[in-house]
Automatic annotation (TrEMBL):
Listed Pfam families: SQS_PSY
PANTHER family: BIFUNCTIONAL LYCOPENE CYCLASE/PHYTOENE SYNTHASE (PTHR31480)
Listed SUPFAM superfamilies: Terpenoid synthases
Name under which the protein is recorded: Squalene/phytoene synthase family protein
Organism from which the protein derives: Alkalicoccobacillus plakortidis
């Protein structure tokens, strides 16, 4: 028995995106109501999976249980008692949702339970697709209902760029969880050791490695935005806003002298407003 109204469920999802990603929330606040609410629900799904891996008491079991719940949801056999599932059910009815992208997202989070070192940039980008490029594919049917399949390459690129940005911002947090997403072949190339990462050392070599990966992220942002004119008018500013705001996190790290071990870089509300005013 559902105890919440659909509007209540969407508002619960809105609280989640506001609490965990003010940048994402701000960018997509420009969307029309139906699309905006769908973004909230999709974000709540992604956040639920991510939180299981990062904060769950028994993440293997909890993620397996979540995967079962999603299968029941797809088969319309899951009681819609939780806000996320209730809102997501409405999204799936209104939009031509890419179900595989949701499944791939779960697969990406499973990777974090079995893999904590990466050896090449190609591996990092593959991982980035599964945990974030998939988000682009989830959102596209909402943002561009009539031609979302044409935009898939750009959507993947944007999500992947955002994840590489996350990796470069969260190096300190990740090492506390025992994870290093900087590929070991690039670490060797630039002369950065795992011991230096664990010791929170910001060296010239570390900065060169960081900038090498940041350049790749910036190239992916550019690639993603090449298709912006093919989005419906009501989605162009939100997508550009999300891309520009997230890309600005890289400059925030630079302003913080690449101190990713003790300082979490972010962009201010004023910076977000400036970005949106220039779109």
């Amino acid at each position: 028995m559902c105890l919440k109204t659909l509007e209540d469920a969407y508002q619960d999802c809105h609280k989640i995106i506001n609490r965990h990603s003010k940048t994402f929330s701000k960018a997509f606040s420009l969307l029309p109501a139906a699309k905006r609410k769908a973004v909230w629900a999709i974000y709540a799904f992604c956040r639920s999976v991510d939180d299981i891996v990062d904060e769950g008491a028994n993440p293997h079991e909890e993620l397996a249980e979540f995967e079962k719940q999603f299968e029941l949801f797809l088969n319309q056999e899951l009681p819609l008692e939780q806000s996320m599932w209730l809102a997501l059910d409405d999204v799936f009815k209104k939009f031509d949702v890419n179900k595989q992208a949701f499944t791939d997202m779960i697969k990406g989070q499973q990777m974090d339970l079995v893999k904590n070192r990466y050896y090449t940039m190609e591996e990092v980008e593959e991982y980035s697709y599964y945990v974030a490029g998939t988000v682009g594919l989830m959102l596209l049917p909402v943002l561009a209902p009539n031609n979302h399949k044409q935009l898939e390459a750009g959507g993947k690129s944007l999500g992947t760029a955002m994840q590489i940005t996350n990796i470069l911002r969260d190096i300190g947090e990740d090492i506390q969880r025992g994870r290093i997403y900087l590929p070991s072949d690039l670490m060797d190339l630039f002369g950065v050791t795992e011991e230096q990462i664990k010791a929170s050392e910001v060296t010239d070599s570390f900065i060169e490695l960081w900038e090498h990966m940041a350049t790749r992220a910036e190239d992916l942002y550019k690639l993603a935005l090449e298709s912006i004119e093919y989005y419906p008018i009501d989605a162009r500013m939100p997508v550009k806003g999300a891309a520009y705001m997230y890309r600005a996190i890289l400059n925030s790290v630079r302003r913080n002298q690449y101190q990713v071990f003790t300082t979490r870089s972010f962009i201010t509300q004023e910076e977000k407003q400036n970005i949106l005013s220039q779109l």
